[in-house]
Amino acid sequence: MAKLKLTAKGVEKLSTQLPQEDFWDMYTPGLHLRVSGATGRKTWLVRYRANGSQRRVKLGRYSEESVPDADLLSLADARAKARAYLSAASTGTDLRAVEEEKREAEALKVEAAVAFRDLADEVLEALARKGRNGEPTREATQRERRRIVDAELLPVWGDREAGGITRRDVVLLVEAIERRGAPVLANRTLALISTLFNTALRRAIVGLEFNPAHMVDPPGVEEGRTVYLKVPEINAVWIATEPEGLLTRAAFRLALLTGQRIGSVLAMRWDGIEGDLWTIPPEHFKGRRTHLVPLSPEALAVLQELRENSVSDEWVFPSRAGSAKPHLSNLGKALSRIRKRSGVKDWTIHDFRTTWRTHAVRSPDERTGPGLGVPAHVADAVLGHKEASLGFGRYTGDQHLYLLAEKRAALEKWGSFVRKAVNGEG
């Protein structure tokens, strides 16, 4: 193993006729330049002994001049780098082993890093199985969360490492939504981000240390929705449902006549109707408890037409053939058609509930329009609101029977009120 007095100019001229030849530096023990006879490629290496074992480490390729941040080394660079390995070895440290451990740790870190889209998928699936109250999350809530994730979060964060998302990232994202003119969506998106990360932390997803939505203020200013249908509008909406198919028409009318959420209406079962009483089971009621709804003669008439034309012995509103769900679940397109046909703007099916309560609690001789004079706590009981003011929590009997007689009387009044509005008698 010949050693040479390597110089910058001498290294530049080195060549070999052999397939490969090593030229050892006389001034730096273990440092050598490997030259390829076929390509002329020159590579710096250092050989040393550490912890009783012989090591050889590639330092980099030869370059006449230093090249910062590149794997190209001049003679001086190679000597300095080789001395670092030799000096560490003299103290019992093997730099090669240290570097290998570091690379392995980085590889494990990269492998363990969870992309935001994977975090979202895992958390949404977990929440679908078991929500905040320990019960499966309602399908409508699942759909809305998935929609926000797909439309607002994945286009921005989809492939990012979830643990690298910062509070600043959250602020910029929700503020951008608010500037689009969607303040409510901005607030809902912020709430969902917080839910996703809090749940992910509880599930110990790798790489997460904190919730980046923590302490971020909602960017949107929300105003409470106060839309309700006046008597002429009840008439217009009812008539506008007439051209629809039987199931769609009946769903809208029952939602108006009962004051119940459209999701509960669409999940109505024939075995849940006994006489003039409709029992909504916990799985189809937002409050996750049994809710009883007395049916007025007007509501029973709608159900009678459905029964006479029913194609299902189980579901009142069976889904169309080929649907993945057993009953109807989405009336968005129908709502658009009926809204346009009615000429009444900016109302939703949920506004039927506001319509019921507004007219129900008004005094019969109120200047803004005659009401039903129903006590407010009874009107709220019809809606299924579980408020302390109702005394519901202190009711020791079967809670689903609470105020049942009062609810029946109130909904009979409401059925008559709607019928008169439709007939132009209101």
Shape: rod-shaped
Structural class: alpha+beta
Biggest β-sheet, characterized? Answer: 6 strands, mixed
Q: In percent, how helical is the residue content? A: 40-55%
Compressed to H and E, one letter per element, the order equals EHEEEEEHHHHHHHHHEEEHHHHH
Q: How large is the share of residues in beta strands?
A: 5-15%
Number of helices: 15
Low-confidence residue ranges: none
Mean pLDDT level: 88
Through-space gap between termini: 111 Å
> Tally of extended strands?
9
The rounded Rg comes to 37 Å
- Strand order, largest beta sheet: 1-2-3-4-5-6
Please outline the helices and strands.
Blueprint: E1 3-4, H1 8-13, E2 20-25, E3 31-36, E4 42-50, E5 53-62, E6 72-73, H2 75-90, H3 95-112, H4 116-129, H5 139-157, H6 167-179, H7 183-202, H8 231-240, H9 246-258, H10 262-266, E7 273-274, E8 277-280, E9 291-294, H11 297-308, H12 332-342, H13 351-361, H14 376-383, H15 404-422
Parallel strand pairs: 1-2, 5-6
Antiparallel strand pairs: 2-3, 3-4, 4-5, 7-8, 8-9
Helix pairs in contact: 4-5, 4-7, 6-7, 8-12, 9-11, 9-13, 13-14, 14-15
Short précis:
The chain has helices at 8-13, 75-90, 95-112, 116-129, 139-157, 167-179, 183-202, 231-240, 246-258, 262-266, 297-308, 332-342, 351-361, 376-383, 404-422; strands at residues 3-4, 20-25, 31-36, 42-50, 53-62, 72-73, 273-274, 277-280, 291-294. It has 426 residues and is of the alpha+beta class. Helix 6 runs antiparallel to helix 7 (183-202) and helix 13 (351-361) runs antiparallel to helix 14.
